[in-house]
Write a structure and sequence with these properties.
The protein has 17 helices and 13 strands. It has 374 residues and is of the alpha+beta class. It is globular and about 70 Å long.
Length: 374
Amino acid sequence: MGRRIVLVRCEAVGMGSTAEVSVTWAQALPWRSGRHLLDPVGTGSATDVVRRLGAVLSMDESAAGLAVSTRRTTSRPGDLAAAVASGEVVKAFAFRGAVHHLAADEGGAYLALRAAGRQWERTSWVEHYRLAAGDWPGFRAAVRAALADGPLTLPELGEVLGRDRAYRHLRPVFDEGAGTLVKPLGWQGDLSVGPPRDRQMTVQGLAANPWWRGVPDLDVAGPAAVTAYVGTYGPATHDHVHHWLGDGLSAGRGRLAGWLAGLGDRLVPVDVDGTRAHVLREHVDDLVAAVPSEAVRLLPGHDQWVMGPGTKDTQVIPPPLRDLVTRKAGLVVVGGVVRGTWSRRGDDVTVEWRDERPRPTREIDQEVARLLDR
């Protein structure tokens, strides 16, 4: 686990420029931990954390809150919810169709990529919803108008839209949940997920949100999203980028390849134990200076630490632990690598150490105390 820095000449192929950088994963993952605000822990707001991570899964609000609070030196329960209530953070159908927290000032870039596939123009969509591609501008305007006075449940939205003969046939769709139909409206910036009411999801318009910066043009959003990803999840391989922005958002391999190439010498190739990856040019010196770390962090299941690079990344998740990670187990991360799992019941935290190396009991106890203080 000792530090190793070897300079070798690597020629970039398809992205970046010539560089002479080689590091180990034992260096790279602790450096990435810093970019994730995990080591050292960040000092910014809940919104700052969401912005840095790009997105925070909203499937389990307690896990989302922990993902954010564990990256802050000072936090209070409800900080993430407060950021959502203020509009600084919005909840939208984003990566893999699931609801994610996005920073209102930058999250539109990810929605632009999600909308790039224009799924609502597919024949199956047109036939099922009886909405042609040319009907969508009017439909979107009707939705925005319906939400102008505040959040509505989906049945309520369907009732309002159903007053227009053109959309009357969609009322049963909204009564049944309308999940698939609603998502493209979010991708195009017409609505976001609102506060629940009587255990029902609501949707709300974005026009009145003072923090919302809209959905940028795709040719602006693409390079911005790639740059943000490499800046937080680097050293990143082509496969990493395609996992997050292609498989996750339907951006398309051709578009991603073009955006990567277009960044030119802003991306620097790095050899990481024989794996070809890239970092932003401004991060090279800090990466090379990074040293191995044994820092321990307890992260929630499906934390961005594992979701960003993907659960198939064996540098972060040893193969024997992948099944536990995909099933949303709490993560014991040491030096950037998942080494165990944890669970909590009240103030009782159970840690399952799942590694051949000695268990770092003192460090785990310290992190458990920090977890209970969140």
